[in-house]
Amino acid sequence: QVQQLESGGGSVQAGGSLRLTCTTPRYTFSEYCMGWFRQVTGKEREGVAIIGRDGRTSYTDSVKGRFTISKDNAKNALYLQMNSLIPEDTAMYYCVARGGACGRPIFSRSQYEFWGQGTQVTVSS
To answer: pLDDT by residue (tens digit) across 37-49?
Structure first.
């Protein structure tokens, strides 16, 4: 069941930037572990970035230094700022959420109970 809505995807050239946004009226982000996963057609979904209730962040190695996850609890919004995009970043990006503290392993899909419908990011060379 879709619980949140993503936006901000699109097509860019390599080296460009995009900012993804996730919002929902269904629950309060400050009480949830939130993050982003992505999926390339034919491959499994992989965790990209996670932010805990305390603001602590985790990133998969391939995006460290290029992507930044953040949230605005007042607006109930989650963001993923993606810079220096490369073609390998092309995927459907999903906003995910888990009530309470983040679980372990933090990039395991089974840790997250709420998933959005996704927003497509396409990076051309």
So the answer is: 999 999 999 999 9
